[in-house]
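dumping this here before i forget
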Amino acid sequence: MLAVLSPGQGSQKPGFLTPWLDLDGSEARLRWWSALTGIDLLHLGTQAEADEIKDTARTQPLLVAAALLAGGHLPLDQVSLVAGHSVGELGAAALAGVLSPEAAIGLAGVRGREMAAACALEPTGMSAVVGGDPAEVLATIERLGLYPANRNAAVQVVAAGALDALAKLQAEPPAASRVRALQVAGAFHTPYMAPAETALDALAGGVTVNDPARTLLSNLDGTTVADGHEMLRRLVRQVTAPVRWDLCMAALKDLGVTGIIELPPAGTLAGLVKRELKGDGAPEIVTLNTPDDLPAARDLIARHGVASEIATEGAAR
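structure:
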């Protein structure tokens, strides 16, 4: 089974979309999506410096655009499963057929803008907690009045909330853990983002959705979502709810995923998968960062995609 993964905020790098402009139609699509969002995605993906693409309002539509741009060059009819991390879920939902590309880009633009506005209301932040006993880490986060905004793996949790509480966490980390402050605008995926969720919810009723054409995992709980309207509801809810990427990875294993392609800017999710799903049965992974990686991605799909699954089942009979 072949899965395509769409990364979230923090994975972007200066100039990461430049190689994709060599492909026919890429520049035109970026210009069109820029017109929809009022954000110059072409500039951000090719010429902007690191500080400019850290801006939440700009980064979120940029990452969704990258996923759609690269995903459009893959034989998606041979892809069995898609999933995204945080804002990457919008890209995944579009690749699954739940949202049109325009709807995904438009929602990303609103999501990014409103989350940035929510961050400006009071000083908050996020810190990664790596290592330690998972139960103790979660208990410490709760005791300090913080939230486990991202549970990326059993030993990688991102705490979010007030800056003074994060400072206490840094000063007295849970046993055998390391705490690292993240360079983000605020406490994403926590109740601090409630105004952004409200703004997104106000638009959701006007969005046309379809049921997914392939298996689509949800960050809320790692489950498969088969109803388009339910997925849209979850995408809105995800603004204030924790990202349970640990459960998404468990689902990849349980569903028997044997091949994974991470869309650009690729590397972060591939690293998590390699650490969590190792040993016998570990999936083969391709990180799709430039068009030069497309042959390897298409080869992986040919060997692990839908046609390969059907051939294997036929041979078994």
